[in-house]
C-alpha cells in the first residue's frame, strides 16, 4: 500500500495514541485483577507502537508474527532498538497467545505487573525514534 506523507503521519500518530491508550487499559484492567486481559492489552500496546514504527518507515508486515519479525530485522539488527526490545515483544506475544487461547491457564499479578514499565519504556523509545526521524526529515527538506 502506498501512502501519501500526510496519510502515513496520520496513521503513525493514531497508532502511537492507541499504544498509549491501550497501555492505560492494561493498567486499569490489571487493577481489577483481570490478568489475562491485562497481558493481552500490554501486548497490543507494544503491537500498536511497533506498527507505528514500521509504517513510519514504509515497512509492511501482514501478521502479528510478521511485525515481531520485522522489528527484529529492521530495528534490532540495525542497533536502533535493543535485543531486549525484541525479547519483550516475543514475551508479550507469547503471553497474549497463552492467556487468550490456552485452556486452564491464567496469568497472575506477579507475571503481568513487571511488564508495565518495560512496555511504557518501549513505547517511549519508539516515539523518540519516530520524532527524531521526523525532525531529521524536516531539516533535510529545508
* Share of residues in helices: over 70%
Q: What is the approximate shape?
A: globular
CATH superfamily: Nucleotidyltransferases  domain 2
How many individual helices?
A: 6
CATH topology: Four Helix Bundle (Hemerythrin (Met), subunit A)
How do the SSEs run, as a string of H and E? HHHHHH
Provide a descriptive summary of the structure in words.
The chain has 142 residues and is mainly α. The chain has a single domain (5-132), classed as Nucleotidyltransferases  domain 2 (Four Helix Bundle (Hemerythrin (Met), subunit A)). The chain is 78% helix and 0% strand. It contains six helices and no strands. Helix 3 (64-76) runs antiparallel to helix 4 (83-101). The longest helix is centred in the first third of the chain and has 27 residues, at 5-31. The model has no long low-confidence stretch (mean pLDDT 93).
Would you summarize the structure shown here?
It contains 6 helices and no strands. With 142 residues, it is mainly alpha-helical.
Q: Any chance you could write out the topology, listing elements then pairs?
A:
Blueprint (H helix, E strand, L loop, with lengths): L4 H27 L3 H22 L7 H13 L6 H19 L7 H4 L3 H26 L1
